[in-house]
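Chapter review: from sequence to fold.
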Amino acid sequence: MSIELIAALLTGAAAIIAFLLSYKKEDKGPRRLWLAVGFVFASGAGLLALEEAHRKAAMESLPQELEREWVELLETPVVAVEFEMLAPDGWITPSLIEVADGVRFHIDGKPLFAARKDFPRGEVNFGGLFQPQNLLKGSRIGEPIATGKTKTSGNTRTLEEFKTFECVASDVTPDTAATWDEKKRKGVCSVAVRIKTLDKIFLRTIGELRNVRMTVTTALNAQCIGLCKIGPLASVKLLMRAGDGVQPIMIEISPSLLLTRPSSLSETTRTATYEIGGRPLLELAKSRFMQSPRYRERERFQFTKGLLSELIRKTTTTTERRELLDIVWTTNPSPDEASLYRSMSPEKRAGSEIMRGPEWCGFGKESVCWHRFLIMGPSVPRSVESKQ
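The token string follows.
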């Protein structure tokens, strides 16, 4: 329901109450009640009218704001390239990492990162990159959480259908890596590894590339178990420290996600090739950036929420200092605390607090976003803070 329709309904309800009160003689008690209800409806309609005026002004200026941000980003250094495989709604068998072995990313032109022993020709094999020796060099791994309907017959319980599926990911640390075995590694729903870029690599550098190619070969034994409405996503993101100091700005450049259909398809080898020049690829990346989640945020009662947040801040805000313990990524926009804390030891959870960060929806699939949550440590007392 639109803001305009809600405002019209509230205004109409307030007018009807005022009309009835002018023709009826009620006792003081009911009359005061109806007057209060009418005042609430009229106030709500007025607030929504302000909301609509604010949203209209914000939406009119948003394209210009995003255009200016994009121009600035073109000259922003890229600090790393992140390669990621994500299965957003089902388990991949034999494993997501084995399926990733059929995904390759190649560029013609200026290299983005230094040559590596595992990729001497500059062509990145996702499966080769997602090996244990690389997981401690800036990686993120996700574990699935699913719910379903089961049927019990005797001593046997059978899963009839899946109801929900979410992927929860966090950075790999020496502590978490020590607990990973081969069975656990096969059950991951996301894997991401970051590679540091060379000096003087900017976002505009992508437009100078001659060609960017992604090939996706589907294995014969690859299957999905779960909801499986969306297949595995192969993502290549540019990470830029242009945002806050914790969460970098990410720009998707994977041809398999930016292009709506493959450039060529081989049924014999089960290989889809996505190929595009650097300049049109940068234009596609810009179009995705211009349709960022900020458009949706501008339609979520921004004025009203801002007014309430300011009132709450003025009356209840206190200043405290907390240490960032972890950043948890999840495909569920409303996860429970248990899923966000699952990768953290119980002793570290004591006194911690969860804060919602910005979401990222650059995959090109409307139903797939990474929702980021900051796990903050206990508040540092002022006496301790002053000594630091």
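Two observations follow directly from the output. The two ends are 52 Å apart (CA to CA). The first strand starts at residue 80 and ends at 86.
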